[in-house]
Amino acid sequence: xxxxxxxxxxxxxxxxxxxxxxxxxxxxxxxxxxxxxxxxxxxxxxxxxxxxxxxxxxxxxxxxxxxxxxxxxxxxxxxxxxxxxxxxxxxxxxxxxxxxxxxxxxxxxxxxxxxxxxxxxxxxxxxxxxxxxxxxxxxxxxxxxxxxxxxxxxxxxxxxxxxxxxxxxxxxxxxxxxxxxxxxxxxxxxxxxxxxxxxxxxxxxxxxxxxxxxxxxxxxxxxxxxxxxxxxxxxxxxxxxxxxxxxxxxxxxxxxxxxxxxxxxxxxxxxxxxxxxxxxxxxxxxxxxxxxxxxxxxxxxxxxxxxxxxxxxxxxxxxxxxxxxxxxxxxxxxxxxxxxxxxxxxxxxxxxxxxxxxxxxxxxxxxxxxxxxxxxxxxxxxxxxxxxxxxxxxxxxxxxxxxxxxxxxxxxxxxxxxxxxxxxxxxxxx
Length: 430
Description:
This protein is α/β, with parallel strands linked by helices. It folds into 3 domains: about 5-90, NAD(P)-binding Rossmann-like Domain (Rossmann fold, 3-Layer(aba) Sandwich); about 95-285, UDP-N-acetylmuramoyl-L-alanine:D-glutamate ligase, CATH 3.40.1190; about 295-430, Mur ligase, C-terminal domain (Protein-Tyrosine Phosphatase, Chain A), CATH 3.90.190.20. Helices cover about 35% and strands about 20% of the residues. It has 17 helices and 16 strands. It has helices at about 5-10, 20-30, 80-85, 95-100, 115-130, 160-165, 185-190, 190-200, 200-205, 220-225, 245, 255-270, 275-285, 315-320, 360-365, 380-390, 415-430; strands at about 10-15, 35-40, 65-70, 90, 105-110, 135-140, 155-160, 175-180, 210-215, 235, 295-300, 305, 325-330, 350-355, 370-375, 395-400. Strand 1, helix 2 and strand 2 form a beta-alpha-beta unit. Helix 5 (about 115-130) crosses helix 12, helix 5 (about 115-130) crosses helix 13 (about 275-285) and helix 16 (about 380-390) packs parallel to helix 17 (about 415-430). The longest helix has 16 residues, at about 255-270. It is globular. The mean pLDDT is about 90.
């Protein structure tokens, strides 16, 4: 019997939320633990697991050792809110279960407001091309507890959201990366301070043998962090120090400042891991990125079309607006609480904006007097307006779909929104 079986053997565990994360937790624990499940929406529960569903009336009668919470659940706004608040000390996450089960496995955990998925995927490919046994898991969509055949030399690259980190108790990482910080998810965390505190959990849990990677320029990180109080070895990442390496990058994906910064983190981590930076450059030149994250869907001499449906805030869009000229920018959806549009005036004349969706008037207020804009009810109508305007523009054009808002007013998620844009733009511009 291994350590994980001893620790969780015969424990009573409630798994709340049956998405990918919840199901992987159940499958991981069920052999040795007494697991019960619950979800606010019974339709989410696979038929074969429904026999483990706990009745709400019986919930207060059972003394659970742990409550495993899926990251998407807000304990202040769910069906068993009072029960969770009363038993908050028992709440853990899938990251905690992994930590307890594999405490000696090397983990590189990447968080931040923007660029987590791209940086995680790029680092994963660098390590894989360096013949390492590496796994890519976490918020990127691959539950960490589904990984098999884990060895002593296995390295986990984990994309961690503030939601995953917020409820974690035991999780720690040898290499912790905070790419950047800007106000986000305030509807869940309440304040920027609490959002930042969730992110900084991965740093504050480290010891003197661990490494922390922080953005050298981010004003919020500077204000919130007293580096002298951190136990770990702090690496301040400054992308300017890698200028000579950027000259060797021949990939349009790294033409903007945000992706250059993401790549700088990968260079910094590679140096600590003693990986030849030439291998990083080789991987970066072949890197295709991820769908709907600054995805280049068309490239010609006169037209570049970028699908950045993953963008849900102005802070994620601004680096792209600073990187190109003659931009036809499509944005819209549900605006983020506390978001601010901080684009320097010199870029305003480069942009024409097409704003759609439920919060279009709210978003237009940010652009008023700065950027010419047109309003539409739907994304499709915004694309059609753009097509009319672009006809007589004979300069090189950039169509940038970077919504700077959440998708839930008209789409299930950013993936569905991204697919719709790709299909619509190809149909209209065929």
